[in-house]
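Recall the central idea of this unit: under ordinary conditions, the amino acid sequence of a chain determines the structure it adopts. In this exercise we apply that idea directly, starting from the sequence alone.
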Amino acid sequence: MADLRFHHRTGPYSLAQIAEASECVLADATQGARLVQDVAPLSDAGASDLSFLDNPKYKGAFRGATAGACIVSAAMAPEAPSGMALLVSANPYRSYAMAATLFYPWPQGGQIADSASIDPTAEIGPDCVIEENAVIGRGVVLGAGCWIGAGATLTHCVLGRRVRIHSGARIGQDGFGFAMGAKGHLPVPQLGRVMIGDFVNIGANTCIDRGAGPDTVIGMGTVIDNLVQVGHNVKMGRGCVIAAQTGLSGSTTFGDFVVMGGQVGVAGHLNIGSGVRIAAQSGVTKDIPAGQEWVGFPAAPRRQYWREQVLIKKLLSKASLKD
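Accordingly, the structure predicted from this sequence is:
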């Protein structure tokens, strides 16, 4: 259950309203007027709450659940306990996200905290929310409906619509560019920007460097977790998903819908094709063609990598027998 000291809840909502907002179909249309007070995990939900089931692994818990209503797939609906109202969805987790947002919407309405520091050159569109201690620097443009968390810093960047930047993120600082030499390492002026597309979500304490000349680009709908480093001149396509503690070196280009697990490292000046999936803790040192799955360090195509691991174990086993 959400702690209402920290979260603002709206509602109640009828099952018909929830179904419409969450792309669901009521299994029993006669229950449309039934009211739901809140959303809650399956293990905690009571008779006035809405929950969801996405993973069949929790089928046993679902059978014994006491939630008044639940979002489920058609395949799992027959497992529901008696009396539970069902909202059937092709993607229960996505539908739950929509329903939870109905009860707990993101702040709206042009709120700017008194403690925020905003440079006079910044441009702020309608319905932006700027929280306590946020710092908006020179040359920043925020599109409509953006949300900037506490303690975030933005400079030299342009944000599209409904971008979310969480607490402590640093957007648009100098890229890591130095002309190295025996007389000292001379900083190279970083003259580009960070261009962030619509509906991008950037996690807490993530850093995105501005470009050295060309821009750093984050494509529409991309989701970046906490503690991610994006180097200067990176070009990222639409709908990418980047998990925590990943580091992307400068001037690497990513296609659309690239997915990276946690603690991935990607070298600079590479091309990563659309639809590529990279396993957690992999180290990428080569270009990756579109649609492939890579794993390990140095990263290689998934099947190739695991074949190599099996071969290495066999060789080590034979060597130990000889010893």
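Residues 13-103 form a domain with the Udp-n-acetylmuramoylalanyl-d-glutamate--2,6- Diaminopimelate Ligase; Chain: A, domain 1 fold (CATH 3.40.1390.10).
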